[in-house]
Amino acid sequence: MLNYEEEGMTNKPNILLIFSDQHRGDALGCIGNQTVRTPNLDGLASEGLVFRNCNTSSPLCMPARASLVTGQYVNEHGAWGNRNEADRFGQSHVRNIREAGYCTALFGKTHFRVPQVGDGHMQDRAFELNDWGYEVTHEIGEIPSEVSSNYYEDFLAARKKLQLHKDAMTIWKHGQGNKTLRPWEHPPSLLEENEHIDAYLGEMAGEWIKRYEGDRPFYLQLALVGPHPPFDAPARYRDMFRPEDMEPAIMVPPSEPMSPQVRTMLERRGLMSLTESQSRLMTSNYYAKIAFDDDVIGGVVKILKEKGLTDNTWIIYTSDHGEMLGDHRLVQKVVFYEGALNIPLIIRPPGGVSPWIANGLTDHYDIIDTMLSAANAETFEKDHGSSLIPKIEAGQSAPDAQRGKEVVFSEVNLYSMARTDRYKMTIDSVTREPLEVYDMKNDPNELNNLVNRASLSGIRDEMQNKYFKQLLDDMNAKQLKTAQAGGIPTTIHQNYPKY
C-alpha cells in the first residue's frame, strides 16, 4: 500500500499539509463527536489514522507555527509569544523538503512575523518565506491590517467587497457603539460563500494543484484561517446547528491554587457570567465555522482525486492549537488546558489504509518527522519527533499500536508544560517554579490543581529532573531576554476583544 515504486507512480509522493487555526481536537466526527459535522475530514480518516492525543507545541499562533517549521522547542527558537520571531535562516523542515527535490508551495496564513509600520503588500515580503524554504507563496493576513495588504484584500477589492470585510472585522475586534461583541454574538459573514477567506484559499490552492505539471513532487501547505474567531461562518452553515443540541462547556472556573498564566487569561478572556445557553450558542457558531472549513477541505481533496493524485499523496490535517470555547470560563487559548492543548491529527497515506484510532501521545514534532520521512529528506541534527509512518505501516494490531511518546511538551509566554499519560505539569520556564499538576486519569476535566499535594512530591521532582531538564537545557538566552523585555518593539497590535 505504501510502496512508491509501483508502476505509474513517481519515486517520491506528494505531500499536502492542511493546517487550520484554532481547531480543538474533540471537534471531529471521526472521533465520536455526534454534533459537529466534518464529513470530508471523516472521509480522510476513513482511509487513514486519527491520532486522538496530539498536542500542540504551543497554545498560541506564532510559537506553534515557529515550532512546526523549525522542529525546535519554543524555548530553543525563542518565539515565546506573538511578539517574537524565530530565525528564518535557522533550520526549517520546508527547506529540507525542498532540498530533497520538492516544489514547496504555501497558500494561506503563516504568522511568522511581527507586523511593522510600512510592511506594504505581503507579496513584497515573499523573500522571507523563500528563506524559510517556500518556493511558491500566496500569503494572506488573518485580519485587515493598517500597515499591510495581501492577495485576499486584492480579491475583495476587485469585487468591491473589501470595505464590507473591514467593517465586519472592526466590529468583531472593537464592538459596535459601546458594546463589545462576546463570542456567541459574532454575526455570520455577509460575504458570498465563495468570498470567505478560507473559501478563497481553497480555491487558490485547488487551482494551483490543477495547473501543476512540474517534474518534481510537490509539498503544499494549505494554511486556513478558520475556525479561529470571529465565528462568522455563512448563514447557511449556522442553520445546520441548533444550540440546544450542543454540549455545554466545562462551566467550573479555575480553582485555587491558580497559576499566574491562567489568572492572566481569566482577566483577559474570562467569561465568569457565561450561561449554559450562551455556551451552547457559542459552540454552535464554532461548529458552523468548522463545517464550512470542512467543505473547503473537501473541495481541495476532490481536485486531488480528479487529477489522479490520491494514490501518490500524503494528506495530513492538523491545527496550530485548540480553542477553550468556554471551558473553565475561558475562550481562545494561551493556557495548557486540554481545550487549547489538544489538536486534531489525521494522516491519510498514499492509497489509503484501513482506518483506526491511535490513542498514544503525539505532537507537532512527530508530524514534522513524518513529512521529512515521507519526502526522504534530511532530518534535523537535534530531533524532537519520531516519524509516524512505521506505526501507520504496522497497523492497529501491532503490539505498540497504542503506545505514544513518553512525554510531550508545550510552551508559551515563558511557561512550560510536560504531559505524560497520567500527569500534566506546568512550571514557570525561568524560575522552574511548579504551577499546576493535574491527574489526567482521575481528573480528565482538570478541575483540581494538585501542585501543592504532598503525596505528589515525588511526581513533581521526577518531572522536574527528568522532563523539564530535557526540555529547557538548551534555552535560547538571547531570545529569552527579548521575550522578557516584551518582544519585538512595534506600534501595531492585533488586539482581540476583552470580554
How does this structure look, described?
- GO terms for molecular function: metal ion binding; sulfuric ester hydrolase activity.
- There is one protein chain.
- The chain has 499 residues and is α/β, with parallel strands linked by helices.
- It has one domain (14-401): Alkaline Phosphatase, subunit A (3-Layer(aba) Sandwich), CATH 3.40.720.
- It has helices at residues 39-45, 61-70, 74-77, 93-99, 126-132, 151-158, 162-174, 197-211, 235-238, 260-269, 276-306, 338-341, 364-374, 389-394, 457-472, 477-484; strands at 14-21, 49-55, 103-108, 120-121, 136-139, 148-149, 218-227, 313-319, 342-343, 345-348, 356-363, 408-412, 415-419, 423-428, 434-439.
- Helix content is 32%, strand content 16%.
- It contains 16 helices and 15 strands.
- A hairpin with a 5-residue loop joins strand 14 and strand 15.
- The model is unreliable at 1-9 (pLDDT under 50).
